[in-house]
Design brief:
Number of helices: 27
Structural class: alpha+beta
Distance between the termini: 35 Å
Largest sheet: 8 strands, mixed
Shape: globular
Radius of gyration: 29 Å
Strand content: 15-25%
Length: 808
């Protein structure tokens, strides 16, 4: 069975790497079942290796076609392309815990009826407070289970596509969301936005309404408190109210797994309920019921623990770590009920099979690998180790020391065992994690979580006191974690390892954690050397790499020479807590092992170019910063306070890195003092020349600035093989004369999918095409990597890593 389940999981993972789904997945699955039964019967008396091979092989086939069957079903409901951006009236219920943000509220909407188009059964909507209509007072007051009639505009799922980035499209697919959009501010008069029912009965609605009620209670009790979001996350699993600054501390100290309804918390709650139920059942003799004679107390305790775990996991939103723990507890409870004692290895495999069976996309997420990897590591490290039984007369102090030693050993095993996987997934490992977890695990699991749950359920004013106490403890713990995370040695970073390096490190880890008596276990750490000491890749001297990120409607490009790196623009601001730098650029730099930048250029102050400036400067050391920003911009103030170099972009500036020449072409010095100019007119424009090839980064210059460049440039000075289309291909830029002077062979359009500016403009895009220029759009191709050598090699992220859900 274990071999089959491992093969089944591998097959599901294999399917998630495919560009296309196999046709007739259901029929193939049925045929595989029949073949497995037939060959299994034939091989019943065969060699053990043959039986194991057959189980693994058919496990892979089953997993592949089962995942394909579910994927076909999930993709069957599609929004038609012609219905994108059209007004559609839908009737349905609020199907998720609403997320309130500064501009409005987001929620999932279960569609019951649609007027004017065929709409998928589950969509994700945003209702912006800045576009309120006659029901303005209702914005922000939507609650789970309510039935609404709304006029919306929808689009198919689409996310930014970047190396080492988050795949938003497959996340929506896993959630069952097949369209996203927003509520229209001015719906048709005959069908205004309106709440039709206060609550629609249903299991999912009851669960989400319960989560909303608990969250509201916590927020009321902890209004204005810094770590209220942490308490909410521990009770209902909603982590969206925790700011990025706190997540940075939790990640640097390696305790982020605790700031949720984790497996440890679920096990603890299940254990408490099991102990309580078993104790009450045994004591029923005192009231004359004699219940243990009818049903053993052990079975009642198992049932109570499993039920408590199930309810708590529902509050968690059914995340992968929570699922894994629930299924393991369910298997143990079932084994107790049936009187069949099973090994922890069987329990883990059954939990693995259940997770992949119900959610084959779970194999794509770090939480899946970390949760199962942690348990597997503890199982492996426990092989061959037997602890002497504790004497019955042992003192409490001795028992306490034994428990502390066991906890320390477990923490050591998990920390060491997950180093290769953590480096593969996150390109960093927390060096202070053992100390931070040794403190945070007992505090969060044994004190804060029970206090938070009790405070959420008990009546006032006791609930308020308990929640305030839990918050105070979290606040004290956060101060300690903040101090640990601020140490320069807190985190070790390195590039994401290639597979050979990961496998070698994994082998070394297995050697290091081998049972006592294994020769030279310390030598296992040598397997980590290639993993931890790798350096970021870079082009050869005289060559150039340019990465144009897919940041939506904005600009951000990483320019690399052999020994230097420059960032041109920082992407847009998506919201108060999210921007192009925090969501795309910084994760990419960390995954590449790039710890600092030699310079950065922010072309101008528009939010689609400077929106990620502060996130970049707070997370990545930048040697010098050049821009056309005004004097009061936060980025300039941050540079002054840090004492790092800052300068204005001025035409005529130039420098050379390893044979690659950089020349600032725009703006003129006088333009910085001309208050009549728009920010676009002062865009920093840079030409970069590597050998016989060049790229021109024009920023958001418009026709007037293009004419100025033409007037003051010598013949051939503007010529470049690659042009970053000025102003995203707007109708005010890319004049014919300018394109003739640059005469590029390749043009890059950094634009957002279905952006409201309709960039690039159709006539401008056609102008490039008429000149025979190759046109690449980041909203279509994803991130673009250009390697300048004897020729210019271009890698399109979506084309190099196609997946069956892209564009679906």
């Amino acid at each position: 069975m274990r071999t089959f389940i491992l093969g089944f999981s591998a097959g599901a993972f294999w399917l998630q790497t495919q560009a296309e789904l196999p046709a007739h997945a259901g029929a193939a699955l049925l045929l595989a079942c029949l073949l497995f039964l037939g060959l299994g019967y034939v091989a019943r008396g065969g060699h053990a290796v043959l039986r194991l091979s057959l189980r693994c092989f058919f496990g892979v086939i089953f997993g592949y076609f089962w995942a394909a069957f579910l994927a076909h079903a999930a993709l069957s409901s599609q929004l038609a392309l012609q219905d994108e951006g059209e007004d559609i009236t839908v009737v349905g219920t609020i199907a998720s815990l609403p997320y309130h943000f500064e501009q409005g509220v987001r929620f999932n909407f279960a569609v019951e009826k649609a007027v004017g188009a065929k709409v998928p059964p589950l969509i994700a909507l945003s209702w912006y407070a800045g576009f309120r209509d006659a029901v303005a007072n209702e914005v922000g007051n939507v609650q789970p289970g309510e039935r609404w009639r709304l006029t919306v505009r929808l689009q198919r799922p689409h996310g930014n596509a970047n190396p080492m980035g988050f795949d938003y499209e497959v996340w929506l697919l896993e959630q069952g969301v097949r369209a996203t959009g927003y509520v229209r501010p001015q719906p048709r008069a005959e069908m205004p936005n309106r709440r039709l029912a206060a609550f629609v009965p249903g299991f999912g609605n009851v669960v989400e309404a319960s989560r909303a009620a608990l969250r509201a209670r916590i927020v009321r009790s902890l209004e204005g408190r810094q770590y209220a979001g942490v308490i909410v996350a521990l009770v209902v699993g909603d982590q969206r109210a925790i700011p990025q600054s706190d997540w940075q501390v939790f990640n640097r100290t390696g305790v982020s797994h605790l700031i949720s309804i984790s497996g440890l918390h679920i096990t603890m709650i299940a254990g408490l309920f099991a102990l309580g139920a078993g104790a009450l059942w045994r004591r029923s003799f005192f009231i004359g019921w004699q219940l243990p004679l009818r049903l053993p107390a052990q079975k009642v305790a198992a049932l109570a623990g499993a039920l408590a775990a199930f309810l708590y996991v529902l509050l968690a939103g059914f995340g992968v770590p929570a699922q894994r723990t629930l299924y393991m507890l369910m298997v143990v409870a079932l084994a107790l009920w049936l009187g069949r004692i099973t090994s922890i290895g069987h329990v883990l495999c059954l939990a693995l099979g259940a997770v992949v069976l119900l959610d084959p996309w779970a194999v794509l997420w770090p939480g899946f690998w970390l949760s199962f990897g942690a348990v597997a590591t503890m199982l492996y490290a426990g092989v061959g180790r037997t602890a002497a039984p504790m004497p019955a007369q042992a003192s409490r102090w001795r028992r306490l020391r034994a428990a502390v030693a066991l906890g320390a050993q477990t923490q050591y095993v998990v920390t060491v065992g997950l180093v290769p996987l953590t480096m593969l997934l996150f390109s960093q490992v927390s060096l202070v994690s053992p100390v931070a977890n040794a403190l945070a695990i007992p505090v969060i699991s044994l004190i804060v979580t029970p206090l938070s749950l009790a405070g959420s359920l008990l009546p006032a004013p006791l609930s308020d006191w308990l929640l305030l106490l839990a918050h105070a403890i979290v606040q004290m713990l956060a101060h300690v974690l903040d101090w640990l995370g601020a140490r320069r040695f807190a985190v070790w970073t390195a590039p994401a390892p290639p597979m050979w390096s990961f496998c070698w490190a994994l082998f070394g880890t297995l050697w290091l954690l081998a049972p006592r008596g294994w020769p030279h276990r310390w030598a296992g750490m040598l397997g980590w050397l290639p993993l931890l000491t790798a350096l970021p890749s870079s082009p050869p001297p005289g060559r150039l790499w340019v990465t144009a990120f897919d940041v939506g409607q904005g600009m951000a490009l990483l320019v690399e020479t052999h020994g230097h790196r420059l960032l041109y623009d920082t992407g847009p601001a998506y919201g108060p807590e999210s921007d192009g730098a925090s969501r795309v650029i910084v994760p990419y730099l960390r995954a590449r092992g790039i710890a600092s930048l030699d310079g950065a250029i922010i072309s101008h102050s528009d939010l689609d170019h400077a929106g990620g400036a502060m996130s970049l400067l707070e997370n990545i050391p930048v040697g010098w910063l050049a821009s056309s920003l005004s004097g009061g911009h936060p980025a300039i103030e941050a540079r002054r306070q840090s004492g790092r170099p800052y300068l204005r972009c001025v035409a005529g500036q130039s420098w050379t890195w390893e044979g690659v020449h950089f020349a600032m072409l725009h703006p003129l010095s006088a333009s910085h003092d001309d208050i009549a100019l728009k920010p676009n007119a002062r865009s920093c424009s840079v030409k970069i020349t590597a050998g016989k090839h060049a790229i021109l980064l024009a920023g958001d210059i418009e026709a007037a600035q293009e004419a100025q460049l033409l007037a003051r440039s010598a013949e051939g000075e503007l010529a470049a093989d690659v042009l970053l289309a000025p102003h995203h291909g707007s109708g005010t830029s890319s004049t014919q004369a300018f394109l003739d002077a640059v005469h590029p062979t390749l043009a890059i359009f950094q634009v957002g999918h279905r952006n409201r500016y309709k960039h690039p403009k159709a006539q401008v895009y056609a102008r490039y095409g008429a000149m025979g220029i190759t046109r690449l759009r980041t909203d279509v191709e994803g991130a673009l990597v250009l390697e300048f050598g004897e020729r210019i090699a271009v890698t399109q992220y979506r084309a190099s890593r196609p997946r069956y859900w892209h564009g679906r």
